[in-house]
């Protein structure tokens, strides 16, 4: 399939696990009639790698500083009728290393929230995010994938 470059947005995000490996970081979006629950992600800026964007977006949206697992988990293509573009999202598995003191971006709209792994699939808004979580859990369980 061919996409017009002016109608594609490249983003990156991460599924961040807490230090126990039993919780994942989500962002609650309070806009609209029903809130959405997602993994933190955002647009890749000019001159920035996908890895750098994922780390920056997690910190800007949640205040969490994380470290990425060595390899990308997957790439997702989503149509976004709201912005009229196709989103290409690079996803990574990550783990918590600390917190930031910077003011959260869009803190009036988004709220960071740690969710127990066994409850995450129930609260995530997109079915693809549930599949992404399964991929990240599998990736982080591989002994050869240690950071």
TrEMBL record:
<protein>
    <submittedName>
        <fullName>Uncharacterized protein</fullName>
    </submittedName>
</protein>
